[in-house]
Amino acid sequence: MNSDDRRQALDPGDGPAESRGVVAEMWGKFRAMHGPQHLLDGAAPAIGFLIGYSVAGAEVGVFVAILIAVVLGAVRLMRGDSVRVVAVAVLVILVFSLFVEITGEGRGFYLPEVALSVVMTVLFGATLLTGQPLSYTVTRKIRLEPAEPKDRAARVRLHRRVTLAWFVFWAVHVAVMVPLYLADKVVLLGSFALVFGKPALVVMLALTWLWVRDRSTAGTGAA
Question: Dihedral, CA atoms, 49, 55, 58, 59, nearest 10 degrees?
């Protein structure tokens, strides 16, 4: 039995236990940053738009969404949230609402999300074809990925899988949202965006962080 085998036999539970610890740490940080509250606050204007649209049309939906965004913004400022973060949240709703005015249709509220899904699908797919996975470039810029890894080829292979996962994530959005948008199924489109928009994006970011960090730590330990 070599040293690695002995280490695994003596401490077989370190991997899962460490992973659970990392997940608990991430959840703790997410709660400390009021992440769940931010998700709910972000969803409220979109829910308001859907209700207003269903009851009285796109114009009322836009009015309700903006009203909720402004009220929530004021509450968040009183709660001590950053002015920049609150301003961005309100601006996003204003931009979405602007597309309703530009297109003259309720589905225009979701046009930015549809367009973003298409762009991200193309970007992640293109970098897979070029051999320079986008997740590798991004994680290096934010310093999650070592600037000079000991085995660059292995890291690139890992990020091909990570980038493929992101490609599938955005491709699913395109496959669902584009047909719903073209069919003018606003309520279904909005319901999908609520569930698989920001909440799913947060989950994907967390899973990516865990995936890359775990492999990076494993590689460092092996070295």
Answer: -90
Please state, in angstroms and rounded to a whole number, the distance separating the CA atoms of residues 169 and 91.
Answer: 25
Q: Quick check: 65 pLDDT over 90?
A: yes
For residue 217, the SS3 value is helix
Q: What are the structure tokens assigned to 162, written together?
A: 């990570």
- Residue 212 banded pLDDT, cuts 50, 70, 90: confident
- How far, in Å, are 38, 50, 55, 93 from residue 113 at the CA level? 19, 15, 23, 12
Cβ within 8 Å of residue 87, ≥6 positions away:
73
In angstroms, the CA 61 to CA 54 distance is 8
State pLDDT tens for residues 16-63. 555 566 566 665 655 555 556 667 777 899 999 999 999 999 999 999
Please say whether the beta carbons of 124 and 192 come within 8 A. Answer: no
Q: CB–CB of 40/13 below 8 Å?
A: no
Question: How would you label 186-210 residue by residue, b for 16+ Cβ within 10 Å and e otherwise?
Answer: beebbebbeebbbeeeeeeeeebee
Contact (Cβ atoms closer than 8 angstroms) between residue 100 and residue 106: yes
Q: What are phi and psi of 112, to 5 degrees?
A: -60, -40
39, 45 in Cβ contact below 8 A? no
Mean pLDDT of 120-132: 92
Summarize pLDDT for 76-104 with one digit per residue, the tens. Answer: 888 888 888 889 889 999 999 999 999 99
d(CA 109, CA 113): 9
